[in-house]
Automatic annotation (TrEMBL):
Stretches assigned to the Methyltransferase type domain: 182-280
Organism encoding this protein: Turnera subulata
Protein name as annotated: Tocopherol O-methyltransferase, chloroplastic
Matching PROSITE patterns: SAM_GTMT
Keyword field: Methyltransferase, S-adenosyl-L-methionine, Transferase
Length: 399
């Protein structure tokens, strides 16, 4: 059993309601590790099946899929950014957390997702004071928008100075911080800009959507990060990078789009430098039981509807990912089901889509985005029925 304690909330969460004086410490939480109960024979069959989600997918279908993904994100990224900001991924919440309807809380939960993923993988925390600089930047951006009072502002600055005292006590080894990061399936580059600021790392993001790549570059330039974060259109399954280039390989909610999971993880491992950390955060279907060969027909039907709207190929399980990583001799493989931590996310997305701004933006954005919005309840139902799993899988490339 793996014990996992999510980090305390990032300080930027706190000023929305109260001055950020002492972040609450969440209780110890237990997360199931992936249980690999299968026999060697059925393992081999499943790895092969997971590896070749393409076996039933022709080259033409792969081409159509990539085109559909590019168009979906070309159309929908502007709407998403308008309402949700930089990050196109789930937020991370405490299971017992009462989540307000505030968009700022959800954005903070999305940043927390990045922090929790780094922590789970054992990537060093980076400069805390740099993180505070981000918070200040975000605070400055948000404060006018949310009409934050002078008293709250004063509390915030007081907390900032007390927090900075802690920073000087931080003894972390700077050599262990990532220096070169690839952001595979980068969206509009939110993770890369965060990692560039946090670690001072050089980040390169790839996406299938030209509009996302342009927007990501524009945002990096606007935030003074053009030297640190750059973005291009490229396929994760044929990355335009030499072997062994990156010490952090980051894939935040892009794996579900990959039609060939073996090729996907093989590319992640290829571009990873010896000793690099690989982090995959992705949608999976539930692990199959020892006597099961495949999902139930109703489960397949449920996922098919989601696949059609979001341009996803066949899904695989967390156990399939673990087996693929094992087959590539990667080390320190860890996996967890984070479904309970993301539960408030889709209801919030639906609420935002039903707001006046959401409805008008959706109507302007095109059919693909509208189709995506219509299947959102299926995501919630899939989680509730234990069919859909929000998974994190991490490992290290041997030295
Ligand atoms: C849900 S978005 C996640 C974006 C980003 N990681 C984030 O957290 O904000 C999925 C991303 O995966 C990208 N993607 C999907 N298939 C891809 C592929 N074969 N090669 C490169 N990017 C891909 C999409 O273009 C999109 O940017």
């Amino acid at each position: 059993m793996l014990l996992y304690q999510p980090c305390s909330r990032p300080p930027q969460l706190l000023f929305h309601n109260n001055p950020p004086l002492s972040p609450p410490t969440p209780p110890l939480l237990r997360i199931r590790t992936t249980r690999l109960l299968h026999s060697r024979a059925s393992r081999a069959t499943r790895v092969a099946a997971a590896a070749s989600s393409t076996s039933s997918t022709t080259a033409m279908e792969v081409g159509e899929l990539k085109k559909g993904i590019a168009e979906l994100y070309d159309q929908s990224s502007g709407v998403w950014e308008d309402i949700w900001g930089d990050h196109m991924h789930h937020g991370f919440y405490d299971p017992d957390e009462t989540v307000s309807g505030s968009g700022a809380d959800h954005r903070a939960a999305q940043i927390r997702m990045i922090q929790e993923a780094l922590r789970f993988a054992g990537v060093p925390g980076g400069f805390k004071n740099l993180e505070m600089v981000i918070s200040i930047y975000e605070f400055e951006t948000f404060k006018d928008k949310f009409h934050i009072s002078n008293t709250v502002q004063a509390g915030y600055w007081a907390a900032f100075f007390s927090y900075n005292v802690e920073v000087h006590l931080d003894t972390e080894d700077p050599d262990k911080r990532p220096k070169n990061v690839v952001d595979v399936g980068c969206g509009i580059g939110g993770s890369s800009r965060y990692l560039a600021r946090k670690y001072g790392a050089k980040c390169v993001g790839i996406t299938l959507s030209p509009i996302q790549a342009d927007r990501a570059n524009a945002l990096a330039a606007a935030e003074g990060l053009a030297e640190k974060a750059s973005f291009q259109v490229a396929d994760a399954l044929e990355q335009p990078f030499p072997d062994g280039q990156f010490d952090l390989v980051w894939s935040m909610e892009s794996g579900e789009h990959m039609p060939d999971k073996r090729k996907f993880v093989t590319e992640l491992a290829r571009v990873a430098a010896p000793g690099a950390t690989i982090i995959i955060v992705t949608w999976c279907h539930r692990d199959l039981g020892p006597s099961e060969k495949s999902l139930q027909p109703w489960e397949k039907e449920h996922l098919k509807k989601i696949c059609n709207a979001y341009y996803l190929p066949e899904w695989c399980s967390t156990a399939d990912y673990v087996q693929l990583l094992e087959s590539l001799s990667l080390e320190d493989i860890k996996a967890a089901d984070w479904s309970q931590y993301v539960a408030p996310f889709w209801p919030a997305v639906i609420r935002s889509a039903l707001s006046w701004k959401g409805i008008t933006s959706l109507l302007r954005s095109g059919l693909k985005t509208i189709r995506g919005a219509l299947v959102m309840p299926l995501m919630i139902e899939g989680y509730k029925k234990d069919l859909i799993k929000f998974a994190i899988i991490t490992c290290r490339k041997p030295e």
